[in-house]
Design a protein that fits this description.
This protein is of the alpha+beta class. The protein has a domain at about 795-974: Immunoglobulin-like (Sandwich), CATH 2.60.40.1180. The chain is about 20% helix and about 25% strand. It is built from 15 helices and 47 strands. The strands form nine sheets. A nine-stranded parallel sheet has the order 26-25-24-23-19-18-17-28-27. Helix 4 (about 375-390) links the parallel strand 18 (about 355) and strand 19. The longest helix has about 30 residues, at about 725-755. The radius of gyration is 29 Å and the shape is globular. About 55% of the residues are buried. One of its GO terms (molecular function) is carbohydrate binding. It is an enzyme of class 3 (hydrolase). Its EC number is 3.2.1.20. Belongs to the glycosyl hydrolase 31 family.
């Protein structure tokens, strides 16, 4: 039986004047079969036990009080470091597991900016060490046995033997960066705890993934456990990144401030709580080992680059991926996609890529397309057309693989069968298939440790690409998510396909009626109607619940660990982390902790790596699908090093002003984590957007590396052309973005080769300015561009700080008006709807290319050079050029642009040449009118200088740069 979701038309009202007919109504599914014609899982299959998180329990055992700690013996200096044996200092406490009596301490220096401290169970055979550790193939080590002379290190390591305590010191200042003094190490088979003291009012950043301001604060709990959840605030989300940097400021003798940053990375991907308190940080994990790497900095930029190099430099993106992307859950057929693509062009809003959510699939099964709504003939014709126009297509791909109904011969699914033949799926402890539930019904999940999984995965993507010529892959639900607790399908697959245990958006009782904050002030009539509809819906749901009564769990839960598999309490560990899901149960909305891998490891140990390893496997597959080209992947779940293969989007946010504001610290966090290809669902995913929010958000996201508009099934459409004001705002911001694409692409080159950041916090660029520690409502794009968006409803202005002091110059992008730094003060900026303040930092040279509808067209256009002189009259910049897609480049060019002493000098390295000419050079900050302008030895006449703005504009350079502006070295003097 064919079954796809159907969205019920609702009474949604558009939040502003539409520019196209039909923009005020929700999209309705066109489906021959309703979800309601198939069995629906009872809602309580996704409810686990109600557990009390230890952080919430006032009677929780205090491991620091009850446990004896350790004593260090047999301390020895080793090449590049030291080692010691740690023995328990008293009787076992066994507070949240079984104490490990003896541990090995291994301290390794190298390179000079890193120090690695590992504490692991003693005398564990190397082949069994992964029980405590993470396989090097899964998560790279940060220090790999380098015999580095400790005397050359930036760090000093201090060890106290009894009780065992250690401190890490910055040699240059004597500052203690990390110290366990006065605190015990607790090391049990299911619980680790260690604590470091911190200075008062510390500035700490990272520890993601979380929706929070950039600075974490000093009375705050962080939990790391990958989960499928709708972006709640201050809770664990889709990825796990146990890395932070701390930024301290010293006062020098002259009264000025000097900033020092250092980083700490715990290479442990078990579930964990991190407790930030007034003067301390406590780490608690439910397994693994202590594997700490310290980065000396001394600036945040240095720390981040060092960490990114350690875990894996980010992938170089194809040029086209930096264009604008459009998606929604609710493009029900090929005609919907065609209409969206054509309408974007009709409104002259650049569109690079169209995406499909799960609507395109045949009954939500991976590697398939619906034979009616997405027939191969219609789909292929559409893809051929957009490819001819230089546009692209990216489909979603879910983590669960549908398991066919054995009682229905017509329910065959060859991709599942191929996975069975490859023995590619997770198992229960007794060796049977672990069967959860996702969108198509009961599903199995790939086991990334199984020998046959990679070949099956690659073969499947290659086979599918022959039918549907996709250009990249969007990985979703890969935490890994399951809609039921335990192997609920083990005795129920004869019911397949089944409806999820919750209503989909648009189904009766689940109409999308939510709007942004302040909507009632600007859209009073629509808000009144929505409020009435919400009240009616809530009353109907309450009446239905009373009539149906409580539901019993219909699906069995495989909760017991097979004897002999593992001595730990797997599904319900004794220490309960503050997990966001119902009851803090690790099995809720996820594959259960006792799901078993072919190498003997359990999801308990591997859960936070599932999406990371799926991304790696997909990257390897796409290398064979797109021979010689860089794969494009956006993944929801991430871990340290995922950026080497993919980008990330911010998950299921909502159409709220505060979510737009929080997207900035979200993006900056993923810059820290080495995943620069980051963006959010612009205009919001859940709920309905409105004109004002969407206009502001489309402009903000234009300065994020990954730029995509996406929203939920049955909400109002929110493509950029739906409102005239949004269309205008989008075109304005996109024109700037597409001009800056060569600059952004060059930033990605630096990220890929050196671990540099693309989006940047102001405090990273100005590390000595303590006033910037909490600034996350504005940001830098590389070193040259600052963006100060409007993030508040009904505001026609914003405020921003201009760092650098009175000698720093900032130029308005639009007017080229110069202003000096504001020395920590906020400055009001006029910003009517449709305007986003953008500034160029003095001292930078930008190579800009004239924008066009697609990135391919843009790359054929003429260039401009924009020189923003600093207070000394100098500026510099660079430009990286390649073919924009190849994994290994035959030819590249690296252009250096330097301005000093009224001379702009262009030098180059590399063999790549281009034919695009130079149109103009604009120089900001020219204080007096030049006597003459020369290009090399040739005198130029087509130029102007304005005394009021101090802007020099040189035009008509196409003739002197004929044959390609970057194909040779040249200079321009004034």
């Amino acid at each position: 039986m064919r079954a796809v979701a159907i969205a019920i038309a609702s009474t949604l009202l558009c939040a502003g004047p539409a520019t196209t007919q039909g923009a005020t109504t929700a999209t309705t599914a066109a489906s021959s079969t309703s979800w309601r014609s198939i069995p629906t899982l009872p809602s309580d299959v996704n409810k686990g036990r109600k557990l009390l998180a230890n952080l919430e329990d006032p009677n929780a055992k205090d491991a620091q009080r009850l446990c004896p700690g350790y004593t260090a013996i047999n301390i020895r200096n080793c090449p590049g470091g030291l080692s010691a044996r740690l023995v328990l200092s008293g009787a076992n406490c066994n507070v949240y597991g079984t104490d490990i009596d003896q541990l090995d301490l291994r301290v390794l220096f190298g390179p000079e900016s890193r120090l690695n401290v590992r504490i692991l169970p003693a005398e564990i055979p190397e082949e069994q060490e992964s029980w405590y550790d993470t396989n090097e193939d899964y998560l790279t080590r940060t220090v790999k046995g380098v015999h580095f002379n400790p005397t050359n290190s930036h760090f000093g390591f201090q060890l106290n033997s009894s009780p065992f305590e250690f401190s890490v010191v910055r040699k240059s200042t004597g500052d203690i960066l990390f110290s366990t003094k006065g605190n015990k190490l607790v090391f049990e088979n299911q619980f680790l705890e260690f604590r470091t003291e911190l200075p008062e009012k510390y500035n700490l950043y990272g520890l993601g993934e979380v929706m929070h301001s950039i600075r974490l604060g000093n009375n705050y709990n962080r939990t790391l456990y990958a989960t499928d959840v709708n972006d709640p605030l201050d809770e664990n989300l889709y990825g796990s990144h146990p890395f932070y940097y701390e930024h301290r400021y010293a006062t020098l003798e002259d009264g000025s401030k000097k900033g020092y940053a250092h980083g700490v990375y715990l290479r442990n991907l078990h579930g964990q709580d991190i407790l930030l308190r007034e003067k301390s940080l406590t780490w608690r994990t439910i397994g693994g080992m202590v594997d700490l790497t310290f980065y000396s900095g001394p600036t945040p930029t240095d720390v981040i680059a060092d960490h990114v190099k350690a875990v894996g430099l980010p992938a170089m993106q194809q040029y086209w991926t930096l264009g604008f992307h459009q998606c929604r859950w609710g493009y029900y057929n090929v005609s919907d996609l065609e209409g969206v693509v054509e309408t974007y062009r009709d409104f002259n809003i650049p569109l690079e890529t169209i995406w499909s959510d799960i609507d395109y699939m045949d009954q939500y099964r991976d590697w398939t397309n619906d034979p009616v709504t997405y027939s191969l003939n219609a789909f292929s014709a559409f893809l051929d057309k957009i490819h001819e126009n230089g546009q692209h297509f990216v489909p979603i791909f879910d983590a669960g693989i549908y398991i066919p109904n054995p009682n229905n011969a017509s329910d065959a699914y060859s991709y599942y069968d191929a996975g069975i033949a490859a023995d590619a799926y997770l198992k229960n402890p007794n060796g049977s298939l672990y069967i959860g539930a996702v969108w198509p019904g009961f599903t199995v999940f790939p086991d990334w440790s199984a020998p046959g999984t990679q070949d099956w995965w690659t073969d499947s993507f290659q086979k599918w690409h022959k039918e549907v010529e996709y250009d990249g892959i969007w990985l979703d639900m890969n935490e890994v998510s399951s809609f039921c607790v335990g192997s609920c399908g083990s005795k129920n697959i004869t019911q397949n396909p089944v409806h999820p245990p919750f209503s989909l958006p648009g189904e009766p009782g689940n109409l999308i009626l939510d709007y942004p904050e302040g909507f009632n002030n600007t859209n009073a009539t629509e808000a009144t109607s929505a409020t009435a509809a919400i009240e009616a819906r809530n009353s109907a749901n309450a009446a239905k619940a009373a009539a149906v009564g409580p539901m019993s769990m219909a699906m069995p839960f495989v909760s017991q660990v097979t004897p002999g598999v593992d001595i730990r309490a797997i599904n319900y560990p004794p220490y309960v982390i503050n997990h966001v899901q119902n009851g803090h149960d690790l099995a809720v909305h996820a594959a259960s902790p006792n799901a078993t891998h072919s190498d003997g490891s359990l999801e308990y140990d591997m859960h936070n790596l599932w999406g990371h390893l799926e991304t790696k496997a997909t990257y390897k597959s796409l290398l064979k699908v797109f021979r010689g080209k860089r794969p494009f992947i956006i993944s929801r779940s991430t871990a340290p090093g995922t950026g080497a293969w993919a980008g990330h989007w911010g998950g299921d946010n909502a159409s709220k002003w505060f979510y737009m504001a929080l997207s900035i610290p979200q993006a900056l966090s993923f810059s820290m984590f080495g995943i620069p290809m980051f963006g959010v669902d612009t205009c919001g995913f859940n709920g309905n957007t409105d004109m004002e929010l969407c206009a502001r958000w489309m402009q903000l996201s234009a300065f994020f590396p990954f730029y995509r508009n996406h929203n939920v099934l049955s909400a109002i459409p929110q493509e950029a052309y739906r409102w005239a004001a949004v269309a205008d705002a989008s075109r304005t911001a996109m024109a700037i973005r597409y001009m800056l694409l060569p600059y952004i692409y060059t930033l990605f080159h630096h990220a890929h080769t050196a671990g540099a950041t693309v989006m940047r916090a102001l405090s990273w660029e100005f590390p000595d300015d303590e006033s910037l520690v909490e600034i996350d409502r504005q940001f830098m794009l590389g070193p040259a561009i600052m963006v100060a968006p409007v993030l508040d409803q009904s505001a026609n202005y914003t405020n921003a700080t201009f760092p650098g002091g009175e000698n720093e110059k900032w130029y308005d992008w639009y007017t080229h008006e110069a202003r000096n730094g504001s020395e920590g003060k906020l400055v009001d900026l006029k910003a009517p709807l449709g305007h986003i303040p953008v500034f160029i930092r003095g001292g930078n040279v930008l190579a800009l290319q004239h924008p066009a509808y697609t990135t391919a067209e843009s790359r054929k256009n003429p260039w401009d050079v924009l020189v923003a002189l600093d207070s000394e009259g100098d500026a510099s910049g660079d430009l990286y050029l390649d073919d924009g897609e190849s994994l290994v480049q035959e030819k590249t060019a690296f252009i250096t642009l330097e301005a000093t002493n009224s001379l702009l000098n262009i030098s180059r390295k590399g063999q790549l040449t281009s034919t695009e000419a130079l149109s103009s050079v604009t120089i900001l900050g020219v204080s007096k009118k030049p006597n003459q302008i020369r290009f090399g030895k040739a005198k130029l006449d087509n130029w102007s200088w304005r005394e009021s703005s101090q802007v020099l504009k040189v035009r008509g350079l196409e003739g002197v740069t004929k044959g390609g502006v970057w194909s040779k070295e040249w200079e321009l003097s004034w």
